[in-house]
Amino acid sequence: MMVLKLFGIIFFCGLLSPSQEVLSGLSCAVSPRAMQNVLSDAIIHNGLIHQHLQGLVVPNIMGEGGQLNSPTSITDLHLIKVQVPRLSVVLLPGIGVQLTIGAKLQLRGNCLVGLLSELIDILVEVNITANIKCTNFESGTFQVVTEDCLCILGAVKIKVLSGLLTLSVNELVLRQLTATLPALLCPVVDIVMNLVNIHLLSTLNAVIPVGTAGTIHYQLASTPYTSGKFVGLDLDGVVKQVGGSTIPHDSSPSALPPLMDRLLLLVMRQSFLNAALTLLLQLPPQTFPCTTDVFSSASRLQEAVWTIAPAGCSACRGTSPLSIKLTLRGNPLILLEENKASVKLSVLIQLFSNHLDGSILNFLLLKADLALNVRVSIVGGKLVLQLALGSTSLSLESSDVGISNISTLKPHCSSLLVETFVPVVNGALSMGIPLPKVLRIPLVNVDFRIKPGLMEFLV
Questions:
Q1: Fewer CB within a 10 Å sphere, N or C end of the chain?
Q2: Could you tell me the CA-to-CA distances from 253 to 5, 36, 116, 240, 453 in Å, in that order?
Q3: Cα–Cα distance between 345 and 196 in angstroms, integer?
Q4: Confidence class of residue 317 from pLDDT cuts 50, 70 and 90?
């Protein structure tokens, strides 16, 4: 039995979380099939194990012979070819992951039997199996301990050029390889896994820019855990504005839903989405004239304002267009309900005119509370939300000219917001919320599920 210590290999999971409840902004469930694909790509298809098995030298095999057999020595036995036809992963609930690598090794050396010297080729099938556990989590990293690294030999085929091979040589080779190969191959697994760790850990602990608005820093929040059906990963998503100030978000405990037959389940919490939306929607105020070349209902809005103005307001009968200023008030709020997502925004609508002396006459300052429907998509590894106005609630903040009844303005203000404000919001949101590239599993053919407080992505 050989025990190897591997440090920080993110994809191997140890202690089972008792309740699988977390307080992070984002959680993932990775299926055994996805884990197998990820590790096969990293270890086999990228050539890591081939690269680190090259140069493998097996100790000399010596046999003293006997009354009926000549002394035998096999020297300079080295690897000339390796085939790794399979890699499998089994999840061990509450323990970790069992990794099995099957390989065929072709060895070549010099064989001396008595006085006859010739080349010898040995083809040996091996299965390397290891149980892996995670311990000592700290700041997004942890120690991974590989226990019970076993190397089991399968079929062994031996060929020499003369074709003359005694049974004793077969037995000698099998006995010596059984004794020496585990000590040679398990350290190779150690090296390969450390390199794979570097490759995959960066997919979870990453600082991703969000245009020029700021960054999202994803970091592993706790020790990965295993059930019989998935590997669980919890991530913190720290949302920072340019300049370094963090946009806070709170999360409540939640359990991962069933993975079913999918490769990856990604769960994003409502509070994290709110922080990300706040980062994206850093909108400057919009100021423009109330004219039809800006929005189609401009003349009707201005006529409606003149209609509700007090009779004694001499300034309310001008022919020059009013000016409009739109200002986002407060932070956006996304609400996730069963099969539905909506965003609530508050906008200040100021209708004013500029006097020749530079002063401003504020005809109306309105607050519009918007409820917007959300359409969700993933584009280029980013979550993109596009909004459409659902309803508008209008209230009066102030009026310098004494306007008090604004009930007739609602349809005109809704038209104003649909044509001028919502496109600006969607333009800002089109930048998208960058998602972590969890173990480099491609986010393609993604299905969405919206639950109370959660948005789920199924790959």
A1: N
A2: 33, 29, 73, 23, 11
A3: 45
A4: low
**What confidence score (pLDDT) does residue 165 get?**
65
Q: Which residues contact 297 (CB under 8 A, 6 or more apart)?
A: 411, 412, 415, 416, 419
Q: For residues 295 and 301, what is the distance between their CA atoms, to the nearest angstrom?
A: 10
The residue type at 12: F
| Closest of 403, 392, 338, 393 to residue 365, by C-alpha | 403
Lowest mean pLDDT among 165-179, 308-322, 439-453: 308-322
Kindly write down the DSSP assignment for every residue of 132-198, as one continuous string.
EEEEEEETTEEEEEEEEEEEEEEEEEEEETT----HHHHHHHHHHHHHHHHHHHHHHHHHHHHHHHH
Pairing of strands 72-92, 57-58: antiparallel
For the chain, how far is it from start to end, CA to CA, in angstroms?
Answer: 39
Looking at the predicted structure, is the pLDDT value of residue 200 above 90?
no
What is the structure's pLDDT at 260? 84
- The answer to whether residue 148 scores a pLDDT higher than 60 is yes
Residues in the chain: 459
